[in-house]
Amino acid sequence: MSVLVASDLDRTLIYSAAALGLTMPDLRAPRLLCVEVYESKPLSYLTETAAQLLTDLGDSAVFVPTTTRTRKQYQRINLPGPAPKYAICANGGHLLVDGVSDPGWHARVTARLADECASLAEVRDHLMSTADPLWVRKHRVAEDLFAYLVVERDLLPQDWVKELAVWAENRGWTVSLQGRKIYAVPKPLTKSAAVHEVARRTGAELTLAAGDSLLDADLLLAADRGWRPGHGELADSGWTAPTISALPERGVLAGERILREFLRAAGPTR
């Protein structure tokens, strides 16, 4: 059976220092492998055990990194094992094939966004006019597809996020709060659509997925089986579905558990 594994990266398979969740005594902490360096500083990690599991996964499945990161942000990551033939960036806006964005796919996505939801310019203007500089650290537009803010969580009014979500919903957009970032993303811009395209191209008979945030919900629902860690937006809201397994592990050990589940579900190596 041909198996496709589509997994979110940040806070699902790889973790910043702040997100590692190392609650055990120091002497029992897992050995870590750095998989991302930014501005000459280590940024993201997985456990050494997870690194081996991810390498093993390549023998039994087509592994597709599936991320909201831009292409430039994704290309900073150096995952163990062979370079994936396919990767999904910008929440489905770009389908990379051997590291290069498929222009036909990107054109289909942008045409759909133009037809089905409010413009990026309108959403960005709303963010700029309503977000308080007291708690906003950065305003960003990603790949001319969606926008996000980097905020100080301790100062962020929760009502503001709820009000933004209602405003965005009425314009065909969705809002997701992940760590220090607030994303505003067009509803038609989905990871699941890009994963369906990769499944079509590869002839996959079984699709497995994992993710931790609201932006991963459609990906998990589109898969035959899915897993979410014990942290993140989905866990905090108690979100689940019949084909989804809610794991108890939190932090970097959740990434290790997810990879074990992928390998178990994918079956013996080919």
From TrEMBL:
Source species, domain of life: Bacteria
Protein name as it appears in the record: HAD family hydrolase
Record organism: Streptomyces hyderabadensis
